[in-house]
Amino acid sequence: xxxxxxxxxxxxxxxxTCLCLxxxxxxxxxxxxxxxxxxxxxxxxxxxxxxxxxxxxxxPSIGSVAQLLAMDRTTLTANLKxxxxxxxxxxxxxxxxxxxRRLVLxxxxxxxxxxxxxxxxxxxxxxxxxxxxxxxxxLRNGLNALL
Length: 147
Known about the structure:
This is MarR family winged helix-turn-helix transcriptional regulator. By secondary structure, the protein is mainly α. The protein is built from 7 helices and 2 strands. The protein has a two-stranded antiparallel sheet. The mean pLDDT is about 95.
């Protein structure tokens, strides 16, 4: 098998050095961890992040939420649907531009978010403690530099 177009050494190199692979693996592991603890509040980690992104003084536009979460609008809209069906948010016309849509947390959505926040704080604190404050902040800084 020596005439393989991609040598096994290249596979090992990618496995050991690829930032995308390492970030994806870490993201999946973190998401599983948060999914597990947030289940008691009836949310996944993605739903928690999405609802938290709506918790603003003024209801955000779909575009601003998509940008914040680094999602395309189609994916965001698909993720909004179950939360909207559950009555956690509404999608309403922008009063200043009827073509635009605003995402509004309902009272039920705010209550769900309020129930989930202490769970997130505890889980996030445990992760920060395991990493150490300096390492955790360095990781956040490095990830933010990629945006």
